[in-house]
Amino acid sequence: MSLYQDQEEVSPALKMNANIGFEFTNPDTVNGKELFEKDLMLTPEQWHAIRERKAISNVIFRWPPGPNGYPLIPYRFVDPVNRQAVEDGIKHWMEHTCITFEETFNTNQPHLQLIQGSGCWSYVGRVYYWNGQDLSLPPSCTGFGVVVHEIGHAIGFWHEQSRLDRDNHVLVILDNILETRQSNFNKLNNANAYGVPYDYTSVMHYGDTYFTKNGNLTIATTNPLYQELIGQRGGLSHYDKLLANLIYNCTDMWMSNCGLRSDPCENYGYIGADCRCVCPSGTSGDNCTLVTSDYYDDKFSSCTEVITQPGTITSHPDYPDNYEAGLRCTKVIKAPVCFLPVVTFNNFLIYGPLSNGQCYWDFLLIRTFNLSAGEMYCGSQISPGVSFTSTVDEMSLYFSTRTRLYNGWSANVTFVPIDGCW
């Protein structure tokens, strides 16, 4: 197999990883209507609010309560959508919120219509004046995380990086974004976060190369160590669950059922249906009182590390065996005072670039001085013996894969003294 694949030759990677992003597969328009941020169908009122920079919270409608008092979302299958995939996604939301879903054959009411449209997309929240609103999940969009993501939009979630406070957590690199897609990264005015912290691990967060025009990152985390976390589609994060339960007043209803006047759970924990606190990672105790570690500490891959000593590093723990698809590894290298980090490669072999030269399927990003800069490498673009020296006391290597055809890379880390520094 050639290291340099044409852009159209995607079948090997597609067979190994079905969760190709909607930014790659979705059309720009559906039935003449533009998809906002590439997977959102908006009502005229929502489009107006966004274009006029008005409060979008005023144009999102929640699903009303059903007979049991909890929010009810009726749904029906219009097309032969993968039923098991939909039911798995629905079950995931129901297990972690008070939102209920019920298959219906009554079309004379607001409900979700599961269709096999062009790409993966949904409306945002309940479209109150229609008897049915489409949620499109063709065969290419039935990965678990994709289904959970699109149901999240139907519940009322926007993309995480649209929050007004996102600049404190991520850097949107406009120079790397397709000019026609830069508006996809706009912040939305008054999108209510209900006091929930920004969440790198939200299932609603864009991936880090969405809408790239040159293969480089379009979203960089302010802390390079967190780069691997954004864009996950493994399921709901703790903060996703918390936000949904706040939006739909689940916690208030559960507290009432439990005979509680206030939520006893601390540190962004919340009371659950069983009257026990649902605690975020990094906390312990019945009421989540004790903070034992950072929220993200248990979410890093086993190959992510902070390196402060000279030695050999590899792309993945099983090197020189082939790496797996879906791997994300971050190496943050920190030099001692008055030294600079140097990385010298022994071997480098990963999946090659597209016909336009972009590294899409697998890549290694090397950043040596700031968040918005860095170079991506793939194929065999780094020869043995090639060194990279940072201009500051820190550098990072971020390795991301969508295939499992090659064995990756190994390199030596050393530190060189800075002239005139002591």
Automatic annotation (TrEMBL):
Zn(2+) binds at residues 149, 153, 159. InterPro entries: Astacin-like_dom (IPR034035), CUB_dom (IPR000859), MetalloPept_cat_dom_sf (IPR024079), Peptidase_M12A (IPR001506), Peptidase_Metallo (IPR006026), Sperma_CUB_dom_sf (IPR035914). Its cofactor is Zn(2+). SUPFAM superfamilies: Metalloproteases ('zincins'), catalytic domain (SSF55486), Spermadhesin, CUB domain (SSF49854). GO terms for biological process: proteolysis. Residues 303-416 form the CUB domain. The active site is at 150. One of its GO terms (molecular function) is metalloendopeptidase activity. This is Metalloendopeptidase.
